[in-house]
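Worked example 3 (structure in, sequence out).
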């Protein structure tokens, strides 16, 4: 049985690797000629780590991950610590560590594990058709590919989603802009083994350790969409938005490289329940585009991949039946993740200023139990427990 996988991102590569481990033939087609990951880094929480462990990348992942031993929230203006706690209770409860990793390195790990020479780059899908015994994809360059099923992991702007749903879905602006990148680790800014977040005014500045003595950083600011801002004004924009914030924030702004820093207007898509049309299935952001506020976008795509492969391998009533069972196992899980992220987004970014102020106040008495309990609930809802 052959699966055509559209998309060479995290979801597509995880799906291809999972399907091959389950005994299926795969062919991966990626639209761009060279993958340039969107976003500098990604938090792989234990539910995602377990998926990569299952796919045979346990040691490779650990070599890429940073040591996130603790977590802290600081007041954005004074820099004073509001709360700080160990991540150890989370690790002990769920049975695995979280790993912040540079996205480009994660992407390279997945592609190399599958076989870089096997990925067909520069193949943008423009049309999909299926019959009772197969699926054919046509590409912009005039070529085509056929298989027994097709997995569309072609991202939030998925070209295949419209075919599956019969309509085009609009993305929803979440109300804030995110700047993100990588910077040399500096303990004058934040501890080397801690996820540190400065908060205030619905804004956020966060740093996570990744490999090779680097911090992954991001800045969030509630703003109208469509502002005329780019790399040319990046540092002056950040200095203006955080002009009276604590010295570590000023040091971070001074240290970043505008040429390698991304500016992204954050969107999601209203959850929907149809991921499958016959022999065609959506996976990852194509099926459930979310904001990054709980760090589960990539993890959810990895979950999709292992569930898809396991469902196809363990059911014998046909491809269409197995794909519908995949859909049934994933719809409510990923809807929950999208809506949890949206709820956290609204609190973090002061959609209701009183609610956000109450959260800041509650952080002063936070021991870690409430924060970690919420994270554990999300992690344990995954297919591998």
């Amino acid at each position: 049985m052959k699966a055509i996988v559209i998309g060479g991102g995290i979801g597509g590569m995880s799906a291809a690797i999972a399907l091959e481990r389950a005994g299926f033939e795969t062919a991966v087609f990626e639209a761009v000629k060279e993958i340039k990951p969107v976003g500098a880094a990604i938090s792989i929480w234990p539910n995602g780590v377990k998926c990569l462990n299952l796919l045979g990348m346990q040691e490779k992942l650990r070599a890429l991950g940073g040591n996130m031993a603790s977590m802290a929230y600081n007041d954005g203006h004074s820099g004073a610590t509001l709360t700080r706690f160990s991540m150890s209770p989370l690790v002990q409860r769920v049975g695995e560590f979280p790993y912040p990793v540079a996205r480009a390195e994660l992407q390279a790990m997945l592609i190399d594990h599958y076989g870089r020479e096997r990925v067909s780059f520069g193949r943008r899908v423009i049309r999909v058709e299926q019959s009772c015994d197969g699926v054919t994809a046509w590409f912009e360059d005039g070529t085509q590919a056929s298989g027994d099923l097709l997995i569309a992991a072609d991202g939030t702007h998925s070209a295949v989603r419209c075919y599956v749903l019969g309509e085009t879905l609009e993305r929803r602006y979440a109300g804030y802009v995110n700047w993100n990148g990588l910077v040399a680790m500096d303990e004058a800014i934040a501890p080397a083994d801690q996820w540190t977040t400065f908060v205030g005014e619905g804004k956020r500045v966060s740093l996570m350790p990744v490999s090779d003595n680097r911090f992954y950083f991001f800045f969030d600011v509630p703003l109208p969409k469509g502002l005329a801002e780019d790399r040319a004004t990046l540092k002056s924009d950040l200095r203006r938005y955080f002009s009276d914030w604590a010295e570590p924030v000023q040091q971070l702004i001074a240290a970043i490289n505008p040429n390698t820093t991304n500016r992204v207007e954050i969107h999601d898509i209203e959850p929907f329940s149809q991921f499958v049309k016959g022999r065609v299935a959506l996976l990852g952001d194509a099926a459930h585009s979310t904001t990054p506020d709980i760090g589960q976008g990539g993890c959810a795509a990895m979950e999709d991949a292992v569930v898809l492969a396991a469902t196809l391998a363990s059911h014998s009533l046909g491809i269409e039946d197995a794909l519908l069972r995949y859909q049934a196992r994933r719809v409510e899980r990923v809807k929950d993740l999208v809506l949890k992220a949206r709820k956290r987004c609204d609190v973090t970014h002061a959609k209701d200023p009183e609610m956000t102020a109450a959260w800041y106040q509650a952080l002063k008495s936070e021991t870690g139990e409430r924060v970690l309990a919420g994270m554990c609930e999300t992690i344990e809802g995954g297919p591998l427990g």
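Notes: The mean pLDDT is 96. Residues 319-348 form the longest helix (30 residues).
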